Amino acid sequence: MNPCAFFEEILKIPRESGNEQQIADYLCSFAKENNLEYYRDDANNVIIKRKSNCNAKETIILQDHTDMVCTSDSNYDFKNNGIPWYIEDGYYKAKGTTLGADNGIGCSLILAILANKEIKIPNIEAIFTVQEETTMLGAKKLDYSKVTGNKLISIDGTSEGIIDVSCAGMASINISKKYVYEKCDKKAYTLRINGLKGGHSGTDIDKNRGNAIKIISEILHNFPDIQLIMIKGGSKENVIPSNCECIFMTNSQVIISDEYKIRYPSINIELITNNEYHQAISVADTNIILNFLCNLPIEVLTYNDNNTPKTSINLGVINTLEDSISIDVSIRSSDKEEETHYIKLVSNLANNLEFKLIDCKPFFGFIKNSLLRDKLVDNYEKLYNKNITLEHIHAGLEGGIFKEHIKDLDICVISPNLYDIHSTKERVEIASVNRVYKWLIATLEDLT
Predict the structure, then answer these.
(1) Exposure string (b/e) for 407-431, b if CB count within 10 Å is 16 or more?
(2) Which residue, 47, 51, 25, is CA-closest to 38?
(3) pLDDT digits (tens, 9 = 90+) for 365-398
(4) Domains of the chain (ranges, CATH numbers)
(5) 3-state class of 157 per DSSP?
(6) DSSP strand E in 282-353: where?
(7) Mean pLDDT value across the chain
């Protein structure tokens, strides 16, 4: 079976987080067509089971999530449309939108395994969860009484030849403030920033890609009499914002330093005069907002011994509403004490603002003795004569939640090569998908 054929079918299906009904329908139809036992819950999680065809006693869990991050260069209708995809130079790519290979390609690989009647397999429990990219509601609501295995291969990594052996947790925070507009006769301007690379707030946070919200806040903070009218930037808390736009009023001379172009060569900064506005948020409230944004550290804060990020903060979304501002911040960490420390730091910085801790997603740690990891390492090296890298990743994965519910869980996370996930430049290498498929088959056969 060809996993890419399944991927092309999945690309036709709308599956933004919270809108997974159609992909759940597709998975259930697949199970029926292949005479496989399946279960679907109210959240649209789907479990598909296939019994061993060689009387193997081992049960292996194959897992991924069905939702995707939806961002576009325009106002693309993800609710009603699939992804406009094409193939170029051996990669699947999308036309101006995220591709959703994270994690549509994981679904495709698992479906290809389930549909392949020619390979020897252990018992398989395929788990397809929802809303991983937002709330991880699927993993939280899953009925774990229907899961009997305790060895889990998640296909939710980003790079071939790497096994993710631990992951970060993530605290989601919302900062808000109510305000009223007042009359203002200062000069009004529109300031836009775009062209930054953006990316995943876990895997790309250490790549110095620039944060459009942070940059625009630093520019505005230089004007002592600044009054905000509107500010809007970012799309998701787990995405580094590549664009931000604001409208403000000031009588100060507006000069923007060239330093940002030097630091981020792809950045575009546009400033235009705007004479349509005659009211704005007060100087005091504007300064409270900008002080928080400028003082918030959005970077890798601490590193592990192997120089991978341990704790970081991302400033993901900002939006002025009718009478309030909303700011979404996330803290990633694989250390509980550090997570607690930085949650308190953000709370203290949000003085005169409303602080709300929305959620804390757990991390999972390294397992010293892992049969699953040993099998994956051995089979990859036999197939491709290359060494496997074991990686402690800074992204958040559902494995932390699975670990809380399944006793003695042995978990490994793998993937074909994905690039620039959560951005409109996202792509997946087709040859890598096929190699990972063969790797999975060899490992499953080795576990029978």
Answers:
(1) eebbbbbbbbbbbbbbbbebbbbbe
(2) 47
(3) 888 899 999 999 999 999 999 999 998 889 878 9
(4) 3-157+397-446 (3.40.630.10), 171-361 (no CATH)
(5) coil
(6) 300-303, 309-320, 324-333
(7) 95
